[in-house]
Amino acid sequence: MASRGTAQRPNGTQGKICQFKLVLLGESAVGKSSLVLRFVKGQFHEYQESTIGAAFLTQTVCLEETTVKFEIWDTAGQERYHSLAPMYYRGAQAAIVVYDITNQDTFTRATTWVKELQRQASPSIVIALAGNKADLGNKRVVEYEEAQAYAEENGLLFMETSAKTAMNVNDIFLAIAKKLPKNEQTGNAGTSGQGRRLVESEGQKPTSGNCCK
Amino acid sequence: MEEEYDAIVLGTGLKECILSGMLSVSGKKILHIDRNKYYGGESASITPLEELFSKFNVTMPANQYGKGREWNVDLIPKFLMANGLLVKLLIHTGVTRYLEFKSVEGSYVYKSGKISKVPIDQQEALTSDLMGIFEKRRFKNFLVWVQNMQEDDPKSWDNFDPFNNSMSLLYSKFSLDKNTQDFTGHALALHRNDDYISQSAIITIRRIKLYSDSLARYGKSPYLYPMYGLGELPQGFARLSAIYGGTYMLDKPVDEIIMEDGKVTGVRSGQEIAKCKQVFCDPTYVPNLVKKVGKVIRCICLLDHPIPNTNAALSTQIIIPQKQVNRKSDIYVSVVSHTHQVAAKGWFIAMVSTTVETDNPELEIKHGLDLLGPISQKFVYISDYLEPIDNGSESQIFISSSYDATTHFETTCLDVLSIFKKATGEEFDFNKVKHELGDEDIQ
């Protein structure tokens, strides 16, 4: 099970750490930020404001052999008028496409986001479909079977989630972590370009070398 | 769109995106619009390659250039000084997290018909053919003086007041000859012409310090270049603005800037009107409020080989000082390649540019083109250099200047910082962003 807040192995040793860039996609107000907030901080706010000020979060998931560190990019609202920059997709190794099970339009839009990913992102990207707000089952309009069939056809991971109750939130990130290839070439968040990140008081060494050592 | 904003920003070129980011960070409610369906305006990187060919109405030969999507071709060539203003802005705003860079491998300068590497350390300086043995000693003394000179400590000035004496006098103090002056003023201080010689020495001293501090950061050269091209920079700052609440609309025509009593009140797109107190824009959105002050010629060249005599460098800059070729302004050659994910494997993009001085601008860049070896494809374009005629104090419309012919982003950043100050009445406070936007790493 994914353990929050530490990259320490259960037996006390530090495993191989692989870093991956994960992007969130989906219509406004389907709960993208809430899912991340639940996953990263274990919190939920009923009246979460539109995304402000937190668009770059990291969280680790421990697997048998490796520790997967997600570098999570939120849309920062740029999806609202279809103004996401190519930079957003660049080097993304995983994506969660979110819809709201109580809103059919958001599911339709989710399928176009999947197409957008297939067009813009790396061909090897791992995509998960999340039917969020599963706690609102009495208002459901998108059937579980419909979404599951779509996911299967397109080779996507699929779960219904609830950021409110935490249902399947850790599990969907864990499923992605398991599916991601963990070799030298891939485990390097967003850094397919192999350049260096700039930091203050920079030393001589690049700060983003291969993470899988 | 039909809401009220503190400011509306028009155009997503680098300057407008930095401004948008700074304004959002400062708590302003921002609407940021571009008439194009892509980010970057003039400072975009064109992709795929097919797009570049069609922009210049040239038929692209099939199967010659690899995959078109592997290309990201800048329209305006520039490098970042590793210790310059743009790097400071990137680090302080956290935008650097979205980007990766590579050091430019070498910097060259043109002298008497051939190019020489700008030395980066004692070893290279000793073997350099740029100057004779005695001149090297004098030049070394000059550099040591510049390094030790502290602006706020007159004792370190060694009886030369850098504020009240010209650069010409400083050159005389160290008896540097004309060739060394050329090299110093153009390849190190990166002046575009010789106006600096009669100006206060401190201007040039600061620039030489910037060069050497930048060089000290990564070693190979003072220049950095972002992976996937310069077009990543505006996208990064746009994201910063969005994170702080900025609203983005691409592919949105701008039909009218609405004025009342000489002051801006909003922007109209079709039937929609967004209200605002201020507008920030590039010159193309307000043709009536700008004047043409010059022209810049730029030539994009696709090459299947590195530049001859650069030790097969995958990226480089060559400066042709004006005097060497009897001009008033320098010619710049910048080269990037597949290693920056801006070209298909094995390909290089060279850009030759200068400020236009004659009626035959293409001939003016010939000295640069001649250095490149065989050129597979050439795209030449000439753009007007526009400046605002209105300083915005009444109208509250703040207009940036076009991108100049300099090879780096220092003037770009100075323009942005000065616009920010004009519009808000205060200097940008870097501390506003630095601590709030922590990495939020939960480890």
UniProtKB/TrEMBL annotation, chain A:
PROSITE patterns annotated for this entry? RAB, RAS, RHO
- Write one Gene Ontology MF term: GTP binding
| Gene Ontology cellular component annotations, sorted alphabetically | early endosome
| SMART domains named among the record's database cross-references | RAB (SM00175), RAN (SM00176), RAS (SM00173), RHO (SM00174)
**Which CDD domains does the protein's record reference?**
Rab5_related
A matching Pfam family: Ras
Reactions catalysed, as given in the entry: GTP + H2O = GDP + phosphate + H(+)
Q: Which GO terms describe its biological process?
A: protein transport
Q: Which domain of life is it from?
A: Eukaryota
Q: Tell me the keywords, alphabetical order.
A: Endosome, GTP-binding, Hydrolase, Lipoprotein, Nucleotide-binding, Prenylation, Protein transport, Transport
Query: Where does it localize?
Result: Early endosome
> Which Gene3D superfamilies does the UniProt entry name for this protein?
P-loop containing nucleotide triphosphate hydrolases (3.40.50.300)
Q: Where is there biased composition of kind Polar residues?
A: 204-213
Report whether Acetylation shows up as a keyword of the record: no
Outline the segment boundaries, as ranges, of region: Disordered.
184-213
What EC number(s) has UniProt assigned to this enzyme?
A: 3.6.5.2
Q: Which PANTHER family match?
A: PTHR47978
The family classification in the record reads: Belongs to the small GTPase superfamily. Rab family.
Write the protein's name: small monomeric GTPase
* Organism of provenance: Trichogramma kaykai
From TrEMBL, chain B:
Q: Does the keyword Cytoplasm apply?
A: yes
Q: Which InterPro entries match?
A: FAD/NAD-bd_sf, GDP_dissociation_inhibitor, RabGDI
One cellular component GO annotation, for this chain's record? cytoplasm
Keywords, sorted A to Z: Cytoplasm, GTPase activation
Gene3D superfamilies noted in UniProt: FAD/NAD(P)-binding domain, Guanine Nucleotide Dissociation Inhibitor, domain 1, Guanine Nucleotide Dissociation Inhibitor, domain 2
Top-level taxonomic group = Eukaryota
Where is it localised? Cytoplasm
UniProt-recorded Gene Ontology molecular function terms: GTPase activator activity
Task performed by this protein = Regulates the GDP/GTP exchange reaction of most RAB proteins by inhibiting the dissociation of GDP from them, and the subsequent binding of GTP.
Please give the family membership noted in the entry.
Belongs to the Rab GDI family.
Annotated protein name in UniProt:
Rab GDP dissociation inhibitor
